[in-house]
Amino acid sequence: MFAYIVRRMLYAIPILIGVNLLTFTLFFVVNSPDDMAVSQLGEKYVTPEAIATWKKKNGYDKPLFVNAGAEGSEVLTDTIFFSKSLKLFAFDFGRSESGRDITTDVATRMWPSLAVALPNFAIGIWVNICVALMVVMFHATRLDRWAVFVFVSLMSISYLFYIIGGQFLVAKTWKLVPISGFNIEAQPWKFLILPVLVGVVAGIGSGARWYRTLFLEEANQDYVRTARAKGASEISILFKHILPNALIPILTGVVVLIPSLFMGSLLIESFFGIPGLGSYMLDAIKSQDFAIVRSMVFIGSILYIIGLILTDISYTWADPRVRLN
Questions:
Q1: At the top level of CATH, which class does the domain 102-318 belong to?
Q2: Contact at 8 Å (CB) between 82 and 68?
Q3: d(CA 85, CA 64)
Q4: What is the tens place of the pLDDT at every residue in 194-208?
Q5: Helix, strand, coil distribution of the chain in percent, nearest 5
Q6: What residue segments make up the domains of the chain, in order of their start?
Q7: pLDDT per residue over 37-60, tens digit each?
Q8: pTM
């Protein structure tokens, strides 16, 4: 097991390097430092002197990869690539284009993101699995057909509809919770109920439909027919046979949600005024603050790789036949 974890971590290094190079290429080759200076200065007519001053102030006046005018190691270190991209591997995110420390912002904003994402993640999976199991129990009945119709209908509705509809109905009409905002000192759970509720309801359509498909695939296996022939109840078959054997595809699907636990939801955090990492990245995209976007892409890549490793390790718990060497 230990050798497997070490090997997977070593595999992650070239992946992160590739992501880093691709991100750097997109930001600095497609969009040159001069273009970044013009977008940040925000003036209609920007003088070359102003562009040069901004580039020098933010460290964009250096060569991209190789500094031919430097000596020794500075040929590679005194470049934009080293100062803006390679330092990310040391978790030195530097400063944003507005001068804020990105590391401090990430450490501060990750907690509101987790406060929303963790209950959304846990409750959402639990609700989707329970609904899917109930539908599978009544497979090929009128309830099953209507459930599939409802799932597809929920999937067809825009995410914005759930957000705006939830704010209008629960917050504005019923006045049960605040419509938006986040105050950690004044009962923060009041500000989290509606975002979590919207996230869970919006995910029922796709989540429950996918789990239903997994459970039905397992329900048609020979071991299920054998259990029925032995007189096992449907409840016992669902929870002792179908659910445990469907854990591997469930774990595989859950891994894609792990980065969102830290990165947050762009729409939910923006519309509900939650100062998390999702709104942080969306604001950076709007203001074209590429330093923040680069850092968030790098963090997201690390989280996704960690999620893949954890998923592979959890396979041994879900299915003892799986062995990691």
A1: mainly alpha
A2: no
A3: 11
A4: 999 999 999 999 999
A5: 75, 0, 25
A6: 2-90, 102-318
A7: 887 777 667 788 888 888 888 888
A8: 0.82
